[in-house]
Every structure is written in structure tokens, then in C-alpha cells.
Design goal:
four-stranded mixed sheet, Beta Polymerase, domain 2, eight-stranded antiparallel sheet, Hydrophobic Seed Protein, globular, alpha+beta, 11% strand
């Protein structure tokens, strides 16, 4: 008689198990079908399969309803496991006792073992079921029949099965050479069959694997974790994290438990308290993190109806609703939900650090156990702290209650001496965070220490990140604590607010060291001229401090800075500078990327905000660091060039250069340089004079000499060959941009046609200038990158094809409207649908002396610029210039326009009509 399945401790956490599956009743139904002699074998199998399908469906629905009634994810995965256990047991009994009954020989015994996560007693709604069919010797015909029959039943039930059929010896041999198999067997759980086989496997595994391969197992599990992190992204604060395999996810917790189970032979995480690895508080944190991640994983599986593990944009909002996160105090529910996730991921990181410290301490007790870590060979001290290898720690019996300042001091000592901090010290700090109270924050020595850390040229970002991970940064600056793990639900920012802030400080340090001299040459030059270096670093730390609060975060952040800076020990002058920088930290980029900097009014307005060369220098450096800290692909040569031009023009104005005199001087200097270049190319004086007469003041001021030479050749070619237009593409490697320039007779819709063709060709338009020259011809230049890769468009064949398509559009052969409507956005539709952008149109007659400025904000899509410019043209407006900016999925397109009479849009009726039309396109 075969032994029945033994119960497993996890079952005690599953209440009302009979409501999930009544195994006795289902077994009775199966036996009725088995006893029905009127049924053929195929019919009997079909009936039993039907019973099991209905049972499985009802059980899953019961578990799902419990989850929807706020049952924890931990209980849900155990309930799923219990349901699957009963299905497998019912199948085994049917196959073994009814289909293939026999008096078993010694070689025909079989044990069914749950392995992997299923063996652990945890099964997510759409997870695989891992089974080991354990044999005493090689397969027999009967064994093979039983295994195949069980598997076919499971497959017909649409259960994803990971199966292996092995002897005990084969299991041990496989485990010795494969860490995945070794881990799977570590969590093996007996289900049914010959229990002696399972016990033999358990004994052999403990004797040959656990007792002999401690070092190999731990090394390989830690290496496996590093590899997994590198695939998923090294930061735990990415936009769309993988909750299973990502850094700070479920697999990290499971890795800790696997190592603990292997090394300490525990079956429950709570047993690590008596082993001296975790405190009771840390075990509670482990269980809390695990429960949240399991709940989240279950919700994700139910929502997507598949084994999805990534928190992609299209599911985050709905998951937030399902998990009962609501909008609150200026923060959207989805952002509050993701903040909770990132805090949990951070807790998982802290637990990992603590656990690894315990492993290292265990090494010191057991000489045969070696970890791939740097170990202490000789104890030393540094500035009053213990030094263990290359890591700073507290001395024995160090009392932080008596010396709370040492919490900051240990970070500074590690920073100055380029050392790491021992995990035990970080653990002690995390347990002592309450010491960083109001009295501590008002301590002058504490303020000086913090400012020394922030402004130290030696890796302040690394130190701040360590402080943030340990909870010190948010505790010392409570306002910063509010943005820790705060996610911004858009496609522009790649990291949480705190992680972005620390990245920007790292960029600031790189600029100061000269590491970015090629990518950001002006910022690299002027940072050494600033007088308020300390204010610059504090402003960088506080620039997004008010994210997640009601109102404009720049305005609110400036208020926080006024309150906070004196508490950090800054002087009144420094405080004012920091507050100003926080208030206007977006102004320079908005001006450079969204306004025509060739328009004198733009420079005048910006200069009135900046007011001094010192503030201009500070704002430039802060802006560059902020943009580069957003994400790896945001900064490019085009943005650098726009910021550079805005900086130089504003500096000239602030230095006292008279606007009109300086303007005329630059025009004459530009014309003179062009004359020299054309003379070198054997142009006649008559041809040079004819060409110069074509240019307008705006043209001479806003183009460089190299571009003017290219334009001159185009214009001469049209005249010499009597063609209707000339088209040229030019790759500007310095600005990482491709210029597409058209010289043709000016007529309404020219700009729109060009924009449409570029969109059809997959080009992302970063900016555009439109000049109507004195001879009535138009010179339109678009600055484009490839929308898919953001790479230079420097393939000659592609450039030639682009030119051909533009020519077809000008002659009317290329039908743009229909083709653009059929094109998909370059981002996945799931992301495009998930991100909401509130449309807005602003019509401003004060931003320019000669033009009406129309700013359009809306969700980016293929052909948006074409639709907008086509509408403006149909309404009788002429586009003088355009600035095209994209922030994730938010497009900000700015047009400088005038009426056909060369005037601003002054009519209220006309302004209303333009507003309505553009809003209709956005919506």
C-alpha cells in the first residue's frame, strides 16, 4: 500500500482549505467514473479530465476572490500551492491505482517530489509547477507509463510543468554541476509515493552537497544574483522594474533564504534570529517585504492573465487602483504605489547587506568557509574608527547614543580615505536613526559635516547614496525624505527623484573634474569661475525637493530652500542664491529648447531673470547636470549647442554690450567672414554682393559661417541651373544632429510638407528655422535625429532616399496625411496608452517683438508636428521659426508666427479660432 501524502507546514496558513478544493468529494467523483464500465477508456479519461478542469477552475476562482477581498499575497501563493498539490495527488492516485495497478517490484517504486518554488510551498497564479519523478534505478516500462500519463493530464489541464525524471544518484550528480538544480532540490518537498526514496535523496543531498559545497553554492548564488541584476538593470530605481528578477525583487529575498537554508539548515526565516543573522525586527521587515512583493506579483498575474513580472507603464496605474492607492497631497496614486515598491526594494537591499555581513562574520568562525569578499588580515584604525580591510567600522562597544555625530562622521571618513563602510556599521546606523532628531539637525558640527560631505570633490554622490540607502539622508533632511523612492509617472525621467538628485550631484562632480569637457565644454569652463560653489551643490541637492507636493515644484522648492539652508549652516547670501537657483532651475532649458534664441526679446527676457554673470554661470552648470542626470539618452550635442548659444548671448548682454550696437557689429563681422570664405572659393565680387543682399538681419545673426557657405552654394545652384528648389542634408557630428535644408520659392504649407515627410521617414525633429529672404525665397532648416535610435543619420543611402522623398512631397507625389495616419508611434502602444498628457495651448504676444509665440503642449505622436503646422498654414499664419522639444511622451512645440500681413495675431476672434483648432488636434 502506497503511503499517502504528508502535510506541509505551509498548509496551516491556508484557512478553509475545503472551499478551495474538497479532495474527498472530487476523489469520489473520479472513482464513480472509474467504476462506470459503460465508458470506453477515452471517454473515461475525458470525464475525469472534465472533473479536474472544473475543480481547478473553481479553486482558482476561490483563491482569486480571496485576494480581491484583501487576502495577502503570501497566503494566496500558499493557497495556489495547496490547490495544485491536491490536483497532483488526485492524478497520481488515479494513474497509479487505476490505470496501471501492479504489485511493485523494487525497481518500479516512484516518489513524486515538488521542487523549486512549488517545493517551497509558494505558487503564483501563473507560475510553473516543477515536479521531480524520483526512481530507485533506471526507468522501467511501468514507471515511464505513469510519468507520461501524469504529465499528459497536467498538460491537458493547461498547467505549465517543469519536470525531471531521475534517480537519487542522478539528482546528486546533476546538483554538483548545476546551481539551478542544486537550488531546486534544496527546496524539495515530498508529495506522494515511496517516501523512502525522498528521504534517501534528502540524506544524500545533505551529505554530498550541503556539507561539502558550502563555498561553491554561496559563491554561485551571489554570482547568479549579480548576473541577474546586470540583465535587469543595476539600479533598483528603474521606471519599469522586474518585481521577480530585478534588484530588490522577490528573487533577492529568495536568494537570501536559499543561502540561509543551505548554510544554516533552516526551514523558516524566523530561525535566523536564533542563528544570530537577523534581529526580530529585521525578520519582520523580511516578511513584510516578501508579503508586499507576493501581493504585487499576484495582482500583476491576475491583471495580465499571464506570468508577467515587469511593472510596465501600462499596468502601473491599474495596479495602483487594485492595491488601493489613491491620489493624495499633490501625488498621484500610481506614484504613491511605486514609491512603496521602491521603499520595499530598498529594504530588500538593506537585508541583503546585513545578511552578507553575517556570512562574513561566520567565515571568521569557520576557517574552511571562504567568501569572495575582502577580509580582514590585520585590524587598524582611521580617525577613531576601526578599519577592517578596506572598510570603516565602529570600534567594539561603540555607543552612538553618546556620540551621535559619529553617524555622519563615519561617512565622511570613508569618503576622504576612499574606503567602503562595513555592513555591520551600516546596520548599527540604520538601527539608530532616531538619534538624528531636531536637536541633532540643529547642531553646527553636524551641519558642517554634512556640507563637507556634499561639497567634497571626492565622490560625494557615492557617499550620499550610501547615506540614502541607510536612511540617514532622509532622516537628517526630512524634506528630502519625502522624495525618497518617489517615482515620476512619465517617460522622461529614468529614476526616482532621490536617485535622480544623487545622479545630478555625480554629474556636477564630473563637470568640475573635467570629465565632461567634450560633452559639456562651456559648463566645464565656467564652473571654475563660480563664486558660490557651496550654494551650487546645495541647490543641486534641493532642486527637486518639492516634487510630489501641490503646486509648481520649482516655486515650492524655493520656499523649502529658504527655510532649510540656514539650518544647513548657509549664510543669508548663499541661502538667497540657492533659493533662486531652485526657483529657476528649469528656466534656462525651457528658454533654450522652447524659445527662439535668435529673437532679441528672448535674450532680454532671460537676462532680466538671471540679472548677473555669476547667476548665469551657476544656472548653466546646474542645468547641464540636471539634464544629464535625467537618463542616459536625454543629453545630446543639439541641446548642448542651444544652451551654449543662450549662455554666450546672455553673457554679452549682461556684460554691458548695447543690444543694437552689438547686433550690428555681429552682423557685419559675420558678413565679412562669409566674404572671405566665398573669395577663397573663387566667387566673383558681383556674385558675393548679390548673395549678401538676399540675407536678413535675423539670418546673419542666427547662422554660423560654415552653414552660410553651404546655403550660398544652394542658392547659387538654383540660380545657375534655373531649378525650382535645392535640398541638402548635412551631418553635424559636434551637435549630433542632421540638418535638412530646403531652399525654394516661399509659399504656404512648405514647412508643413517638409515636417510630414521627415515624420514618414522616421525622423524626430528637434528644431527648425524658417527664413524668408529678401528675394522672396524660403530657406527652411530642420534639425533631426532618428526617432528610433537617436543616432546620427549618416548613412549615404538613407540620406539620398530622404532627399528623394522630400522632392516627391514638394511635387505632390507623396501623400502624407494618409500615410502618417497609418504609422505607429515609435514607442510601444502599451506605454503610449498608459501615459496621460494634459493638452495645453498658450498664445503669447509679449514673448517676441515681431511675432506671436504659440506654445503647444500635448502627447507626442507620429505626425503631430505635421498636423499642427498644416493647421497653422490653413489659418493663414506664416511660421517664422519653431522649437521642437520632447520630454518622454510630452511634446512641447513652440512656433513664432505672423499673419499674411506680417503682423502679430491681435484679433481676439482669430486667437480663439487658433486655440480651438490646435486643441482639437491635441485631443
Amino acid at each position: 500500500m502506497l503511503k499517502e501524502a504528508v502535510s506541509h507546514p505551509y498548509e496551516q496558513d491556508v484557512p478553509n482549505r475545503e472551499r478551495i478544493i474538497d479532495s474527498i468529494a472530487v476523489q469520489a467523483q473520479i472513482e464513480m467514473v472509474q467504476d462506470n464500465r459503460d465508458l470506453k477508456d477515452s471517454q473515461r479519461r475525458g470525464e475525469i479530465l472534465k472533473i479536474l478542469k472544473e475543480t481547478l477552475k473553481a479553486g482558482r476562482e476561490e483563491v482569486k476572490q480571496r485576494f480581491e477581498q484583501k487576502t495577502s499575497g503570501t497566503v494566496v501563493v500558499k493557497a495556489h500551492c495547496y490547490l495544485m498539490d491536491q490536483i497532483v495527488l488526485l492524478l497520481y492516485r488515479h494513474v497509479n491505482e487505476f490505470l496501471y495497478p501492479a504489485s511493485l517490484t523494487k525497481g518500479e517504486h516512484l516518489s513524486l517530489v515538488a521542487v523549486g518554488g512549488y517545493g517551497r510551498g509558494e505558487l503564483a497564479p501563473h507560475s510553473d509547477v516543477d515536479l521531480l519523478f524520483l526512481m530507485p534505478y533506471k526507468k522501467t516500462a511501468r514507471t515511464e507509463q505513469i510519468v507520461e500519463s501524469i504529465l499528459y493530464f497536467l498538460w491537458d489541464l493547461n498547467i505549465k510543468v517543469g519536470q525531471s525524471v531521475r534517480t537519487v544518484n542522478e539528482c546528486i550528480k546533476a546538483a554538483q554541476g548545476d546551481i539551478t538544480i542544486s537550488t531546486s532540490l534544496l527546496e524539495g518537498r515530498y508529495l506522494i509515493g515511496d517516501e523512502r526514496l525522498y528521504r534517501a535523496l534528502h540524506v544524500y543531498y545533505e551529505r554530498n552537497i550541503q556539507s561539502r559545497m558550502e563555498n561553491e553554492f554561496i559563491e554561485q548564488k551571489l554570482a547568479e544574483r549579480r548576473t541577474r541584476h546586470s540583465k535587469q538593470g543595476v539600479s533598483r530605481y528603474t521606471l519599469e522594474p522586474n518585481i521577480k528578477d530585478g534588484k530588490g525583487g522577490l528573487r533577492d529575498l529568495q536568494t537570501l533564504f536559499w543561502i540561509a537554508k543551505f548554510l544554516y539548515k533552516v526551514n523558516d526565516i524566523r530561525e535566523l534570529v536564533s542563528a544570530g543573522v537577523f534581529t526580530k525586527k529585521e525578520v519582520r521587515k523580511f516578511e513584510k517585504a516578501q508579503d508586499f512583493l507576493w501581493s504585487l506579483r499576484c495582482a500583476l498575474h491576475y491583471l495580465t492573465n499571464r506570468p508577467d513580472e515587469r511593472l510596465s507603464f501600462d499596468v502601473q496605474r491599474e495596479l495602483a487602483v487594485q492595491m488601493h492607492y489613491t491620489d493624495h497631497a499633490g501625488t498621484r496614486g500610481v506614484e504613491r504605489f511605486m514609491k512603496h515598491y521602491f521603499i520595499v526594494a530598498k529594504d530588500v537591499g538593506n537585508l541583503t547587506r546585513i545578511f552578507c555581513a553575517a556570512l562574513e562574520a561566520d567565515h571568521n568562525r569557520r576557517s574552511r568557509f571562504r567568501l569572495p569578499l575582502t577580509f580582514l588580515s590585520k585590524k587598524r584604525t582611521v580617525e577613531g574608527f576601526a578599519l577592517e580591510g578596506d572598510r570603516v567600522s565602529f570600534r567594539a562597544r561603540h555607543d552612538l547614543k553618546e556620540n551621535p555625530l559619529d553617524i555622519l562622521k563615519i561617512f565622511h571618513v570613508a569618503q576622504k580615505n576612499k574606503l567602503d563602510i562595513h555592513p555591520d556599521a551600516l546596520r548599527y546606523i540604520t538601527q539608530s536613526l532616531k538619534l538624528l532628531n531636531k536637536t541633532f539637525r540643529e547642531n553646527e558640527d553636524a551641519q558642517k559635516l554634512f556640507l563637507a560631505i556634499l561639497t567634497d570633490p571626492n565622490e560625494p554622490a557615492l557617499t550620499l547614496r550610501r547615506m540614502n540607502e541607510a536612511g540617514v539622508l532622509g532622516q537628517f533632511i526630512p524634506d528630502f525624505g519625502k522624495v525618497v523612492a518617489l517615482m515620476q509617472f512619465n517617460m522622461y525621467h529614468s529614476y526616482t527623484v532621490d536617485e535622480h538628485t544623487i545622479f545630478t550631484i555625480d554629474v556636477l562632480t564630473q563637470i568640475e573634474r573635467g570629465d565632461l569637457s567634450e560633452a559639456a565644454p562651456i559648463a566645464t569652463e565656467v564652473i571654475h569661475k563660480v563664486q558660490s560653489r557651496r550654494a551650487l551643490y546645495v541647490a543641486m541637492l534641493l532642486h527637486d525637493i518639492a516634487k510630489g507636493r501641490p503646486g509648481d515644484h520649482s516655486v515650492e522648492g524655493a520656499k523649502v530652500a529658504l527655510r532649510l539652508c540656514p539650518k544647513l549652516g548657509l549664510s543669508p547670501e548663499e541661502t538667497e542664491t540657492v533659493s533662486w537657483l531652485v526657483r529657476y532651475h528649469l528656466t534656462m532649458s525651457e528658454t533654450a529648447f522652447s524659445r527662439d534664441i535668435d529673437d532679441p526679446q528672448t535674450i532680454q527676457d532671460f537676462a532680466e531673470i538671471v540679472q548677473s554673470p555669476e547667476r548665469l554661470r551657476l544656472l548653466l552648470v546646474l542645468t547641464v547636470a540636471d539634464i544629464r542626470g535625467v537618463g542616459p539618452t536625454v543629453w545630446n550635442g543639439w541641446k548642448a549647442a542651444l544652451l551654449r548659444d543662450l549662455y554666450w548671448r546672455t553673457e554679452s548682454l549682461l556684460s554691458g554690450e548695447h543690444a543694437e550696437e552689438g547686433r550690428q557689429h555681429r552682423i557685419q563681422a559675420t558678413i565679412h567672414q562669409l566674404q572671405e570664405r566665398l573669395e577663397e572659393q573663387n566667387w566673383t565680387q558681383k556674385a558675393i554682393k548679390t548673395h549678401i543682399k538676399r540675407g536678413t538681419d535675423s539670418y546673419w545673426l542666427s547662422t554660423d559661417t560654415s552653414a552660410q557657405v553651404r546655403h550660398a552654394r544652394m542658392m547659387k545652384e538654383v540660380e545657375d541651373k534655373q531649378t525650382l528648389f535645392a535640398l541638402r542634408t548635412y551631418v553635424d557630428r559636434y551637435r549630433q544632429i542632421t540638418e535638412v535644408t530646403l531652399y525654394a520659392g516661399d509659399h504656404p504649407g512648405l514647412f508643413s510638407r517638409l515636417a510630414g515627410t521627415l515624420a514618414l521617414y522616421g525622423c524626430s525633429i528637434e528644431g527648425a528655422t524658417i527664413y524668408t529672404l529678401r528675394n522672396g525665397m524660403a530657406l527652411d532648416t530642420f534639425y533631426v535625429v532618428d526617432s528610433m535610435t537617436k543616432d546620427l543619420i549618416d548613412d549615404p543611402e538613407r540620406l539620398q532616399k530622404l532627399e528623394e522623398n522630400i522632392e516627391r512631397s514638394l511635387t505632390g507625389e507623396l501623400k502624407q496625411t494618409r500615410q502618417l495616419a497609418d504609422m505607429a508611434h515609435h514607442l510601444p502602444s502599451r506605454i503610449h496608452k498608459a501615459i496621460q498628457v494634459t493638452p495645453r495651448v498658450i498664445i503669447d504676444n509679449n514673448a517676441s517683438q515681431h511675432y506671436t509665440v504659440i506654445e503647444v503642449n500635448g502627447k507626442d505622436r507620429t505626425g503631430l508636428l505635421f498636423d499642427l503646422t498644416k493647421a497653422l498654414t490653413k489659418m493663414g499664419l506664416l511660421i517664422h521659426s519653431a522649437r521642437i522639444s520632447t520630454y518622454g511622451l510630452r511634446a512641447v512645440d513652440v512656433f513664432y508666427v505672423e499673419t499674411a500681413l506680417g503682423e502679430k495675431i491681435t484679433s481676439h476672434q482669430k486667437r480663439t479660432a487658433v486655440l480651438k483648432k490646435l486643441m482639437s488636434i491635441l485631443e
